[in-house]
Structure formats: C-alpha cells, structure tokens
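Database export, one record per block. Field names are fixed; values are copied verbatim from the stored entry.
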Amino acid sequence: MSASASQPQIEKDAEIETPAEALPESSDGLADEDLANLVTAEEYLLRKDVVLLEYEKQMFLDMIHHDGLLVCAKGLSYERVLLNILKVYSDAGNLLLVINSSDWEEQYYKTQLDQKYVHEVANTATERERVYLEGGLQFISTRILVVDLLKQRIPIELITGVIVLRAHNIIESCQEAFALRLFRQRNKTGFIKAFSSSPESFTIGYAHIERTMRNLFVKQLYIWPRFHATVRAALHPWQAQTIELHVPLGPRINSIQTHILDIMNFLVREIKRINRTVDLEAITVENCVTKKFHKILQAQLDCIWHQLNSQTKLIVADLKILRSLMISTMYHDSVSAYALIKRYRGTEYAISNSGWTLLDAAEQIFLLSKQRVYNGQNEFEPEPCPKWQPLNELLTTDIPADMRRRKGAQHLEAPKVLILCQDARTCYQLKQYLTQGGPRFLLQQAMRHEVQVGKVSEKFTRESQSTVMAETTAKAKKETETETEAKTEPKPEMETTQLDELAQLLRETDADADAEESYMLTMTQAMPRAAPDPNASIFEIIPELEQFDVSAALAEHRQPCICLQTFKTEREGAMALEQMLEQLQPHYVIMYNTNVTAIRQLEVFEARRRRPPAERMLIYFLIHARTVEEQSYLTSLRREKSAFELIIDTKSKMVIPEYQDGKTDEAFVLFKGYDEEEQANANANAQTRKGAATGAALNVARITPKVIVDMREFHSDLPCLIHKRGLEVLPVTITIGDYILTPDICVERKSISDLIGSLNSGRLYNQCVQMQRYYAKPILLIEFDQNRPFHLQGKFMLSQQTTATNADIMQKLQLLTLHFPKLRLIWSPSPYATAQLFEELKLGKPEPDAQVAASLGTEDGEQLQFNNAIYDFLLRLPGIHTRNVHAVLRRGSSLRELLKRSQSELSDLLQSQESGKLLWDILHVAHLPEKDEVAGSSALLAASRQFGSGSHNRFRKAAGEARRGRR
C-alpha cells in the first residue's frame, strides 16, 4: 500500500518491536516486496510498541498528514507524539532537522531514539557537510544552521523536513524564522511541523498566533485544550482518587497576608492615579500575586518607561518586592521569612522605596514577622510551617492505615509515596524536617541567616533535645544529598559517627545553597523497647537515587519509600516528573504545593496505566483554602482557559493566504528595493525604444545587493531582517567591523549596554582606529532595543545608572567624534530601522568583496609594512584618506619632506587639487582660534607648559625653514 505524498511510508513490523523506519516518499523503483511492507499512519498506530492515548493518536495523525502548528495545554504533553513522528522518519534516506529544543528535550529524545539515526553536530564545517549527507536526525543550534544554509554546506533540496519546538518563541526577527525562510525558499516539498505547550504566550501582542504561523510557513492550526472532548473522554474514566486537605493558616500568617494585599492594593491604585493616560488593565491585585506578573508588567511599560515619573518606577519595583515577601511568608519557614522582611526595615531601603514602609500595614507586617520567631518574652521560639504537621500525620498515620485497609494487615508490599514541591528550596526544607525534625532545622536557618537567637524558650529547648536524643539513639545512614540526574557511579553506603549539634550545624551552614531537586527517604521501624517519641526522626536518606533499585530494597526491608521531587528540574524539565512516576510507580502522591502541569501529568500517567479503581494512586492536596495560594492556582487556570478561548476565536476568523506555506514564490515577495521601480521603468523604455532584446539584457544585468556579515553577529536579529529586505547575506569571519556594505563603508554595531562597556574598557577606540585605517567611511551604529524607547538620556536605558555616569558616557562619545573626524555615528531605534538604513546606504554603490574584507587586518596585509602611529597621524591630516595614504607613505619620505613640497607637488602626490590644497594649508597657514575656542586654546597652552614644548618646537622650526625656502 502506498502512502500519500505528505505522509511518510512506514515499514510494517508488528511482530518485531523495533522503531518504524520511514522509507523514501516516492514509491517509484521500489521492489514489490518493499511496496507490500508500506503501511499508512493509521496502521502504524496499531503496532504493539506504539502506546498512545486517543487524543495523542489524533495529534499524531494531524501532524503526520499536514504541516501545522500544534498548541496543547500544559501537562497534556506532546512529547510522545513527537517521539513517534521522529521514529517514523528515522532513516538514512531522510534528513530531519530539529530546532529550538532545550537541552533536556534534546537529551530525552536522543535516549528514546535509535542511536544509529541520531547524529551529533560536528565542530568543523567539513565534518558537518559529511554528517548532513548521512541523513538521519539532527538536533542543531539555529545559529549554526543559518550559517550552513547561507554557505550552502547543507543540501537544502534533500532536507525531508524541519521540526520546530517551543513555537511560541518564533518571532519575525529570530534566527529560527531566518532558517525556515532559507529552507522554504529552496525546498518546496519538505515539511515544517511546529509544537507549543504555552497557550498564554500567543495572547501577548497583536495577532500573535497569525504572525507565528506566517513565520513558520504553516497553514494549519491544531488546538488541544484540557476541555477538548477527546481529551476529557481519554482521561475521565481513569481518574485517580483525590483528597483535598484544607490546612488552616496561622493567625499571624493570615494577618501578614492581609496586610501585604492591602499595601499592594494601595500601590496599584497609586499607579493608576499617577498615570491616568496609560492603559494599565493588567495591573490588578489578583495578577500581582501570580507567577509572571512582573515580566508582563515590565513588557507593557518598557515602551513608555522614559515617560513614567520616578514614583511609578519605584512602585513597580516595590510590587515585585511585596510579591516575594508574600511567597516567603506562605511557603518558607518563619525564620527565613523574618530574615527577608528584616532587610526592608533598614535605612537604605527606606530612602529608596515608594513609601510603603511608612504605612501602618507595613509596621504590622514587621511586628507579626518578629512574633513568629520570638515569643512575648523575646525568647527564640519560631513557629513551624502550617503544613508540616499534616504532612507528618499523612506519612505516619493516614497512609499506613489506608495501605492496611487496601492490602490487608499482612500485606508484604511497602507503600511508595511521592511528595511534589514547587522548588528545590522547599524540597530541601521538607527533607531536613523529615530527617532531623523541625526545631533543629529552624535553628539551622537562624544561624544561616544570621538571625539573633539570644535566649531560647523552654518549649523550644525541650523539642530540640528530644529530637537530638532520638537521632543519637537511632541507627542512621550517612545523609547523602542526591540528585536524580547528577549521579553516574554508585557509591557504597557508609556508616558515620554522630556529630555534635554545633559541628553538624557548621558543616551544613551553606546547605541551602546546594539544595537538590530530588531526595529519596525511607522510614525506619520503631524499636519495641524504646518509648514512643512524637518528635523522633524516623526518616532516613537513601543515597544514589538513580542507581538505587527501589523494588529490590523494598522487598528485602519492607520499608516505606518516600520520594521528594520538584515539579520540574533544570536538567530534565517537566519530563522529570513523568520519569519519576515511571520509575517509582507510587501508591500515594502528596501535592505539597499546587501546580496545573503536575496535576495533568498525574492524570495522563493514570490513564496510561488503565488500572481498576482500587489500584489507582491516591492523591492528597495540601492547600491553604481562601488564600493567595489557592487564588494563584485558580488564576493560572482561568488564564489558560481564556488563552485557549482567544486562540479558538482567532482561528475561526483568521484569513490564511494560499501561499502562506511558502511552496510558491508568492510568499517571498520581499520589500521592494528603491532601484526596482527605476529598473522597471528603464526596461519599459528600452523595450519601447530599442526592442525587447535590450530590455532583456538590462534584466540580466541586475545584481542582488550583498552585505558581508561577521559570523559573531548571527546572535542578533539584524542579519535575518537584512535578508528579509531582499539583500544577500554573506557570512564571513572578519576582524574589522561587523557589517561591510560597500568597499568604503564599514559598520560597527553596538547595543546600548555594549556601547557603555566598550567606551569604558577602551575597546571601541581600538575598533575605530582599525576601521578608519582600512575604510574611507567608517560608521558606528548605535542600536536600541525595539521594545524600549528610543531615548538615551534616562536612567532606564543606561542600566539604572546615575546621571553622572550618563554624562560621562556622553563626554566619551564627544571625545570619540573629535578624535575620529571621519567616523559617522548612526542612531537606530530598532533592527528593523537598521535593515532599511543599510538598504538605502547601498543604493548605487559597488558591492563588497568577501575575500578582501576577510584579509584586512591580518598579518600579511600591505598596510602593516608601515608604522601604525605614523599611519594614524597622517589619516588625521586634511586631504589624506585611505585611498591616498599609501602613496604618501611610499613617496613622502618624511614629514620634513612634505613640509618642503609646494602645493602643486602635494596635489600631484595626492592626485587631487582639492586634497593638495587642504594638506598645504594645514601645514603652512597659521590657524587662529575662534572666539568660542579661547578657553580650549588656553587649556592647550597650559598643557604645553606642563609637558614641555620640545615636540612643538620641532614643527615650528620645520615650518620656519620651509618659509625661508619659499622666499
């Protein structure tokens, strides 16, 4: 059976469970036996080794049959769908490129695919050319891909297709869009498939979803929200049992939360009162407590930041601080929260904030935070976290009781519990609490954050002593902090002697900084003759989580296994939770913090297992009801639902042109150059007056404008935008300048931050020296961020520096222009404006030579046969420039000889009457200062008296001899 043109042909291998291999898409020339083994995508899904849920199968079929953009809800991961698509195309006859992937995504797919089809990106260009011809899969950085496409190192016509991950990041000026445009211009048959799991990102900006699809060259949009009927039908029958435990907040924490919200509400009203003309709909108290509020607010205010007064800027910064105080109060221990809040009680911050610390509510926050750590007699008695006690009861009472009820009293299987936290800090906090008790952990935190302990209350002393005694008598393993992805070799378990409390605290003083993202604990059995101690630590660390055989250890020791895990890790991303669920197969999951993505991952995991209700996971939610924690969770759900509703509405109304997929040349009608109309008119006139032959000859004579771009500049957006305007980009490693527009024009591009750094370090001076030495028209391009104001005089654009630094930068720029009179400064508001400017600067100019540009500044250049200091001095004289300076150096002999020559002789030497007159005048005519230059002249005279006038005397003597010679 032959597959359709847009669908890969798959080898049927249902009995042998190996990844399906994609055969060449054309069935011409294939043997009858090969044709018999071809199957459709639907038949591929019936294979035994393809385990996909119903909605994932539909995703697979949609993306196999058509090019498109797939947007799915967080937690309904498209990873398995993409993995099967990659398996389908894994063949030496295909060349598949995967771009814009994160490190953990690349690592995940590489471990799941057949290694013989996955090729590592080579370091050298020659090696990469060879690897491209071998076919298979390539996870490649976009910068390398763009350069290889421009240099034609990669057989573009032979590329089977391109997979784009995190498609919500694809904007018009990014490198990924550049690579896709280069690919689609020369390859009209290959596919482009894009994936994204961030629907909220498509709601930012105007027509974001349409622009993204246009940049991706796709016409189909596939939307998969959680409320999709197919998704609900796949997940609902296999729902796990959930128990929501509402943990009450302590009265002090509740009061602190209320006061922080009151202050935030006051600051939000202040912003709207001060800036009545600015659209600030996004600024609400509800949004202030959500995760990405500050980034959204900053993006909204960036373009008008220079118009905002200082009070508004301070309020924006204070809203971020108040949100951090809220998070610390809700999730961290009382000692850490007090240490953070105490920082904002100091004099320095009181001077620089918007004034919220003077409010009565702020005073109450400081007072209540202190009361959480010290009692009425000012004794050290920190209160524990509200969720600690319920968590302990779950692990020691509820879960064992439920296990006995499920399996019977004589069951042999030990419970496996997974505790999910929002970050590594919370993970470390729970590990310390479970292994050494709350009081000792809080004392550790006090020493780490330099919180004064002073006198300790009797209650806290009793709790600490009971914990220490229990730990001393218990048999403990070495506390080894383990990370799931960091270990490669197993280490043997070691017995350790019990350290005294002070030594232990000193040893672990910096432990919070090294908090891991995953820990494995086990629960020790209580000794029969020992008296039960409610504060005793019965949890121990299991070292080497990755190499640890959980099932074997539990079968041998019959001990409960408790895993502490963050929702996602740096190395494995969101896949860390899915992999932990597969390894551990937990009976119980405790959601210590709430997270939408993690909850859906648990739903999908349970739907894959298809177990009866009695054997499904039991999920406990520890949540503070009617608090900021619950509101933040509900807001994130509402935001995602609103985002999907907007995308669905946009899809129903959007108009997609037929040529948007780039498979016809209509999609590449670029910006019309200024010379095209003139050329068209010239052709029309030529055909009318001289016949069609002359007009055709004029058409042939047209040359695409070229711009030489330094290889290091491909980190920026400008090369992409230059190419989009119809100019040919030539990637070359050049030592002088960043862009060569013509043989005379060299451009050094600087962003604002780079400009400040280059001026301060002196690097820009050396770059200008080199440009002026080799090019007649050196240009310094100062480029601003397109999302920020085109405005230099302001604290914001100079990285929050002071006005003194601002003035210093302006003075250095003035000195630069005085020192290099031929240097031209160009101020550009954005890369888009720069691309247009380059196009205008090239009109009617000759094209640059890539070989010449690459050779300039190297050791074998002609220019370096002369003294650089003399060379630079001559270039500063009027009438001498890069075209005639070599003639002066070769035939001028010395400055004394130049002074002896007449004006006509200098004109002959410089091959220009005007240049000869300019040089003669500067050497022989006395130049008196203007009235407004008197101050500068007096400064020069003072400097000459200070440093001596020997050098000036030599010039005066030579000038005098020249005048006597003329007489």
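Remark 1: The longest strand covers residues 745-751.
Remark 2: The two ends are 103 Å apart (CA to CA).
End of record.
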